[in-house]
Amino acid sequence: MIDFTHVSLRYDGAPRPTLDDIDLHVEEGELALLVGPTGSGKSTLLRATNGLVPHFTGGLLTGRVTVGGRDTAEWQPRDLADLVGLVGQDPASTFVTDTVETELAYTMESLGVGPQTMRVRVEETLDLLGLADLRNRPVTTLSGGQAQRVAIGSALTAHPRILVLDEPTSALDPQAAEDVLSAIRRLVDDLGMTVLMAEHRLERVVQYADQVVEIAAGRIVRSGDPCRVMADAAVVPPIVRLGRLAGWTPLPLSVRDARRRARTLRDGLPEVPPPRTTHAGLPGRVLASSHGLTVRYGRVEALRGIDFEARAGEICALMGRNGAGKSTLLSVLAGLVAPTSGTVEVGGVVPRRSTPRELVRRVGMVPQDPADLLYAASVAEECATADADFDVPAGTCAALLADLAPDVPASRHPRDLSEGQRMCLALAVVLSGSPDLLVLDEPTRGLDYSAKQRLGAQLARLAATGHGIVLSTHDVEVVATLADRVVVVADGEVVADGPAQRVVTGSPMFAPQVAKVLAPLPYLTVGQVAAALEQVA
């Protein structure tokens, strides 16, 4: 169904090809999963599947790409729309209508599908992806996760034979991600749809894959049976790292399989796990606070009576369903959204009433879409501008970027970077100002496990030197590794607030893989398990 034959792609002036001699075959009715480091070429390969590469991106493509028997060199992306549905990393940027329902119908209208058929497919998709309550919502008011589900639904309503997904769960809460992936798996099993997917949160998706393809530096390193590939892959989920540590063969890819093998491991571990790597002692002074905070968008009450504090030396994770109000709370702290009622203070000032110059050293925010912060024509210009804006030594921003994402070309335009590389660049820009409080909205979106570790180390250093960090995230593995405190938000209200160890182990939805495998033992990370095994050896 999908065939890449000796496919290479090189852009003018690039030191190496973005894709290098790719040979790939995906059978009809197969779910193939692309894995690899941030910037390895996964998104480029996906866009080549429907002809966006090179018809719209440029570059010299050699070799042959065929989908459903059609050569993409001879067919424009618009002519492949009935065959290939593509959902990119930034789905909201592709919306062309006003409401959820009309967005779901748009692709079908373009393909000339009849009104009655359109109506039935829209209703099916609303139910399949849990969007019925959002039917009449303006797309501009959707959260990142809601927008992602709408984009997937818009592709599905056209009933393509091939579905191409780039980071489909990156902005979804754990339950929404499970629902979407289960729906995709049903389409594969029941309708024979072919799915090619790239995803960094392998803990969510690897158990669904029929084939795993590992790519690095534009080349396919290995491909085939998921268990076999995961045995040697450089990028693996926590459950595979736990299996490698315990010596399990074959490696488990699901929590169920791991729990079945983990009895001996559980029996040999101390009941009290070693402490997670810590970066600070007790939280310090209050950097930001809200009391009775309420925010309304028209008839929608995004926050209701929120009392919240962020302290120096603390990493606080905001968790909750898509649309719960997490991003709104961050935006209020950063002065981007005005409270409807209640009070907010950051560093002794009211954010919405303060000038950017007053706020810049008190709070720095990285939004879900890092492109909102990037305006220069190259990475080097972005870094130089940040150094000048924050009056820091030249090279400060570039050094931060090199630490977060090595080998990002200084001459590259930010729009030509991968989503993960853009996120790292935006983080470097904001970190250059060394704000007292750093607020991050889905900062690990598009990042591989190594990049997440580098980001975690950077945030831990900031917390250790007295900065406060508040991050909104659906990445339970990052929370398990990094967070001191977890605040759960639901329907605009705080429903849980406490130490990360207690909050995440008390919720099946927010528990990391290791906690699920080793329950009732209160372990959260593979690092804790390794340290405990060393103690009892």
From TrEMBL:
Keywords: ATP-binding, Cell membrane, Membrane, Nucleotide-binding, Repeat, Translocase, Transport
Pfam family, one: ABC_tran
Occurrences of domain ABC transporter (ranges): 2-242, 288-516
Taxonomic lineage: Bacteria, Bacillati, Actinomycetota, Actinomycetes, Propionibacteriales
Keyword Hydrolase attached: no
Protein name from the UniProt record: Energy-coupling factor transport system ATP-binding protein
Subcellular location field: Cell membrane
Role of this protein: Probably part of an ABC transporter complex. Responsible for energy coupling to the transport system.
Gene Ontology MF, one: ATP binding
Gene3D superfamilies assigned to the protein according to its UniProt record, in alphabetical order: P-loop containing nucleotide triphosphate hydrolases (3.40.50.300)
Tree of life domain: Bacteria
Membrane topology recorded in Swiss-Prot or TrEMBL: Peripheral membrane protein
GO terms under cellular component: ATP-binding cassette (ABC) transporter complex
InterPro entries assigned to the protein according to its UniProt record, in alphabetical order: AAA+_ATPase (IPR003593), ABC_transporter-like_ATP-bd (IPR003439), ABC_transporter-like_CS (IPR017871), ABC_transpr_CbiO/EcfA_su (IPR015856), ECF_ABC_transporter_ATP-bd (IPR050095), P-loop_NTPase (IPR027417)
Matching SUPFAM superfamilies: P-loop containing nucleoside triphosphate hydrolases
Family from the record: Belongs to the ABC transporter superfamily.
